[in-house]
Amino acid sequence: MFPLKDAVMGASTFFASALPHDVCGSNGLPLTPNSIKILGRFQILKTITHPRLCQYVDISRGKHERLVVTAEHCEKSLEDLLRERKPVSFSSILRIAYEVLQGLQYMNKHGMVHRALSPHNILLDREGHIKLAKFGLYHMTAHGVDVDFPIGYPSYLAPEVIAQGFVKPSDHTQCEKLLPSGPKSDVWSLGIILFELCVGRKLFQSLDIAEKLKLLLTLGCVDDIVTVLAEEHGCLDIIKGLPENAIALLKKFLTFQPSKRPTPDQLLCDNVFSEVASIYPCFHKPASLFSSSLRCANLTLPEDITQLCKDEDCDYLAERSIEEVYYLWCLAGGDLEKELVNKEIIRSKPPICTLPNFLFEDGESFGRGRDRSSLLDDTTVILSLCQLRNRLKDVGGEAFYPLLEDEQSNLPHSNSNNELSAAANLPLIIRERDTEYQLHRIVLFDRLLKAYPYKKNQVWKEARVDIPPLMRGLTWAALLGVEGAIQTKYDAIDKDTPIPTDRQIEVDIPRCHQYDELLSSPEGHAKFRRVLKAWVVSHPDLVYWQGLDSLCAPFLYLNFNNEALAYACMSAFIPKYLYNFFLKDNSHVIQEYLTVFSQMIAFHDPELSNHLNEIGFIPDLYAIPWFLTMFTHVFPLHKIFHLWDTLLLGNSSFPFCIGVAILQQLRDRLLANGFNECILLFSDLPEIDIERCVRESVNLFCWTPKSATYRQHAQPPKQASDGSGSRDSMSCFTADYQDAPKSDLSRDSIQLNDLKAEVSPRISAEDLIDLCELTGPSHFKTPTKKTKSSKPKLLVVDIRNSEDFNRGHISGSINIPFGSAFTAEGELIQCPATATLQSFKGRVVVILGHVVKNTACFAAHLVQIKYPRVCILDGGINKIKPTGLLTVPSPQI
Amino acid sequence: MHQLANAWAKAYTETTLEHARPEEPSWDEDFADVYHDLIHSPASETLLNLEHNYFVSISELINERDVELKKLRERQGAEMDKVMQELGKSLTDQDVNALAAQHFESQQVLENKWTSELKQSTAIQKQEYQEWVIKLHQDLKNPNNSSISEEIKVQPSQLRESVEGNGRIYEEQRQLEESFTIHLGAQLKTMHNLRLLRADILDFCKHKRNHRSGVKLHRLQTALSLYSTSLCGLVLLVDNRISSYSGIKRDFATVCQECTDFHFPGIQEQLEIVQQVVLYARAQRSSKSKRQHDSVNRNGGNEEKSKNIERNQSNILPGEFYITRHSNLSEIHVAFHLCVDDNVRSGNITARDPAIMGLRNILKVCCTHDITTISIPLLLVHDMSEEMTIPWCLKRAELVFKCVKGFMMENGFMGCEEFLGPYNFWYLQTISEEMFYQLSNMLPQIFRVSSTLTLTSKH
């Protein structure tokens, strides 16, 4: 999008037509409200950017099918020119015509028709250039089907439009579909407007609507429409005084037969414009982040660089894109409905005065006339930026142009710096509502993402603080490492040929996050279908499992106008977090995953684990949809965003911690209940505090040795060819355990049955060495600040018999021989060593021994008596022996 | 071509403000604005007191009427007794009949007299009130004239004194109630409030004569929200006649007439309007269905329906409902009169029953017209009979709970997320307390009750 510059934002409102009573869709589900259909269709308009068109910014739904559209606006329009009641010079008419045609041509290229051209919809910006307003109304309302009012203005309707008639939208039974208008209808409308400008007065002013339309239809019988119109309005001499080519041009515009009327495209090539055309450079849409063309291709520096630094006190806000300004305007307390109410565009009656008297059983109501407040008033209200500018008046220019090189201080050095760092400590919800803070973040991310992938590391670093909602789509793509010509790739996938999965996709989409306006719109459904099909087709070894739709939802929502990016993100996400989950036979992958998950529950919350095992409430019963959809099936989108903001920074074992964190929030209720209640509880998951969930899962993650979540079926290590350099700076939090180079001390894969038999997770010798800091400084970095205390985090319990222990052991470990550790009731037998163990309760306890069975059994006993964070050393003492880290205690005297 | 142009012209005039006919100023809406302003100003107390005073005078009239009617009846009864003793001796059957007729006539005359008197005083009150409100509003707008605002400050205490003393004390019955906060929706959850209470339906409507502060607050609350976007509604179950002659309809009308409605037409007038609307609606329907008959082959279902209509045009069918608006009831603004037949007394109604469909439409209207609180008779009956056993009640309550849940979710889907207000399920007072607890236990099984916040001490 272009910078705002000196444009203003305007809002206008209209009502979508109400649905008929008690009609169901063909799939038996309720019909989609028309306002949602419009909202879905609107989205593409945001991507239509052209200097001759008003940039669309946003659409929002109000009560009772009201829609409010925000778009770029200008205060002056051709209406003002006409009001002067003076003929406009031919040269400026040529310019106006050319500019309007440029706008129309660009729209036509995107398959859109204006249909509502009128002098007050052709705006003039400060420099006197044309900007077309309301150009998307005909498109977003499905050619006027979804609204009650006709689109277009009586005086400017083309004859073929009038001849089609106006089908009352209330007659939904009538399936007669009107053909949508084509680009040539706009040419007629423009012709009438140009005629009006030529003669300096409006046409058909004295006639009522029906007469106007009849007159327009009768024009088909006359030879020379221009002359007849001029005679009709008593301005024949003005027309006669026009140059020859002007009249010829008007005649071309006002050709009665659409088949003979030229299109905007053809008109632009007309000779009459040859002089004007040379002034206008060809328009190129700036390349977007993931485009295949070179983003810097058209970048030129001015000869004199000092010119760039000249304007000292320029308006920095105006240099931001209109989308960002609107976002900030909303944050700064902007309220569209309130603005419209203040200008009396929205006038609502008290609802008690509009109640009907009587309703039939099928819902048809009687006794109340049409509510006048629902009539169309297409006035555009200008949104004042005063409040926003006032809010941002203390923000210095540095904030708008942060320096990215300085790794040390990314925060700008403005007066608000202190406030800003204070804001950074506030809860996320508050930060996302803070205008100033968001401004800083948006500017920073905007710049970082423009420099992606070069600035990838810094994107990671900043994303760890938080991700501004406005930039989330692109930021996620950057975090997932999406690169390359994604559009070309996506276009190359066949999304049309029917495949067997279509049926299932068709069933799932109308049930996926349908509370959301975007995703429940028909446009959203179509996009869902294409992205899902693209994924299924392009991954022949994998299949569509129910849940893939939910997984697709957040990506599609964030990249609604960029399906290719949604597809690319999803394709990058699945192998990272859900490797092989979508195999046709995925049972081994899922079984292993769930077993590791139950080990994680035992590791972090032994009491809960004991209870759940006791009542037989195993993860298979509830956790499959959690992990298969990465929680997108259980949470609403706004919670998924916050969860995934962190998830995407974590490695593939982070989801385990999220799962445990969710269980912990429901801990009390789970502990208090039996099997049936638990099933009921999870069938409709209660509200989860997501910020707490994120915080706790990060905490859990930090306590988890990274090899504890080792999975045999995880994604095999990638070939270290791709950007191994960039990985260096990332902490263990982000790197996958699987990705680390494999050594003798790493974990070996074990059979699923063996894994299932063990309550506690195994950790690798490497981890043990790391954690005990046997070899110098620890690598156990946390994503947050490193909180390394001098106290050991962990206790090694050696369960071999004491002779073996004395022959050599890990320094700091204690010896509790397996045979003499527990009483028959499963209690620990009191002795100095067990006392030490008790004092270490709450830290990580690593069980080490000869025989795998014994260690596992010992660990299970400890879990039974509610010892948290118990794990077993994979491979036992034999793994440690070759390292030479065992020490022999000096005999005590 | 003529038709074509006219169709366009009609479309423009009906849908766009620019071409629409200018709005005729509506007294109702202007008054609504004025009242809404006033009730949200310091003058609200005065307004309420004035309303209450009017109410007291009306109820005095009603009292007088009742006393006089009672006296008349007693006198007539005595006379009749005398006559009966004389029957066969000096008087014939004819004489007795004549006397009875005369008695009836004089009763009618007296009743008519009172009715017209009541009507008249109501009309006077209404006019006075409306004029006063407009004047007060003008005065308040005009700051020079402060006499009224001072008056406002003085008035209340005087008024209150006159109120004290008279009036029967309303008999408070034990009201059982329990509130629930529930969540609806699979992923995105919306919160709603439900309240289960055992009460007499007219408790929502009746004004209490003794002017206690709590009651007054209720009244103020109702007055404040009258022209707002959070209205309160009530579902009444009625038979197929639009009248106020019998049963719940009469009781409701009596309560409505206890106090002048200063904003809307009286109940009788509203019912007359409804009758006309129903006739009009039926006519529309039959002409429409005729048109369909002409084009489509006749099928059995339609015929049956047209037969139904032929029976009596002015009667309404089960599942249909009419709406009346009130400003003079204590806790509600809108009454939905839902037509039900004897079917609801049977044990086996389903979710497709007309009564349930009517309920669905009522909730839809609530959604589109910002009625945020609605009270629903949980068992879909107003009085209990023997066949309504405990299992019957439980079954019925379950059906209504489940259906309402479905409709709430449907409305959420239709884009009425802001519909969060309390739903009241009330049911008859004749039901035992035990029943109440059974029902309140059932509710959390059907609705997902929001989790309670457990406060635990940190270790």
TrEMBL record, chain A:
The keyword Calcium does not apply. Pfam families: Pkinase (PF00069), RabGAP-TBC (PF00566), Rhodanese (PF00581). One of its GO terms (biological process) is cell population proliferation. It comes from the Eukaryota. Coiled coil: none annotated. GO terms for molecular function: ATP binding; protein kinase activity. Residues 1-273 form the Protein kinase domain. Keywords: Cytoplasm, Cytoskeleton, Endosome. It is found in: Cytoplasm, Cytoskeleton, Spindle; Early endosome; Midbody. Residues 790-889 form the Rhodanese domain. Residues 466-651 form the Rab-GAP TBC domain. One of its GO terms (cellular component) is midbody. Belongs to the protein kinase superfamily. Component of the FERRY complex (Five-subunit Endosomal Rab5 and RNA/ribosome intermediary). The FERRY complex directly interacts with mRNAs and RAB5A, and functions as a RAB5A effector involved in the localization and the distribution of specific mRNAs most likely by mediating their endosomal transport. The complex recruits mRNAs and ribosomes to early endosomes through direct mRNA-interaction. Also involved in the modulation of mTOR signaling and expression of mTOR complex components. Involved in the control of actin-cytoskeleton organization. This is TBC domain-containing protein kinase-like protein. It comes from Gopherus evgoodei. The lineage of its organism: Eukaryota, Metazoa, Chordata, Craniata, Vertebrata.
Automatic annotation (TrEMBL), chain B:
Signal peptide: none annotated. Residues 285-310 are annotated as: Disordered. InterPro entries: Fy-3. Residues 292-310 have a biased composition (Basic and acidic residues). One of its GO terms (cellular component) is protein-containing complex. Pfam families: Fy-3. GO terms for biological process: regulation of mast cell degranulation. This is FERRY endosomal RAB5 effector complex subunit 3.
